[in-house]
Amino acid sequence: MKILVTGTSKGIGRAIAEKFLACGHDVLGIDVLPPSLSHARYTHSVADIAKDALPAADGVEILINNAGVQNDGRDIEVNLQGTMRVTETYAMQPRIKSVLFIASASASTGAEFPAYAASKGGVVAYMKNVALRVSAWGATANSLSPGGVTTELNAPVMQDTEKWRAIMEETPLKKWATPEEIAEWAYFLTAVQRSMTAQDLLVDNGEAARANFIW
Q1: Fewer CB within 10 Å, N side or C side of the chain?
Q2: Can you tell me the distance from the alpha carbon of 153 to that of 183, in angstroms, rounded to the nearest whole number?
Q3: Which domain holds residue 7?
């Protein structure tokens, strides 16, 4: 199948691209950074999804919106408006089979930087709108909301002993997901399952369920 993934130069996006390539699919990646993948079935385009010209790509069958920023002053512009721009460009056509949005646990908990949480909450709401529209072609649209993931972006807290200890105290399973695990979820939600749509799936090692009962 023809897969388009945004934000493929590192982290979750790169892991997702690698998963689809390993399964024999053709992948087009879009990122503001140069490519970090080298594969015969991989094509890379350098672009800012919020403002640059988007590459031509007809007949995208699976679209995975992963590109984003965190607390850098452009959260709404990139995470929400850029994601909407990509989706309207590539998903609204008859060959689409599935659209996935990489949102965040903060979309439902609000427990992160204000603009970041707002941007991801907007992504989840927009996903539901997309699900209604792409259903005309029998396609699904869902969002995947990770909690903590062991990416380069999170290195500042992962490498801080005190902060990491505090984070683990709030995480029942005492770990974070790896980018590769999130990629497995992304593959299942888009290339395998055909019946769930308009849903947000939380993968946070139990953090949102944390309840400190005082008696």
Answers
A1: C
A2: 17
A3: 2-149+177-206
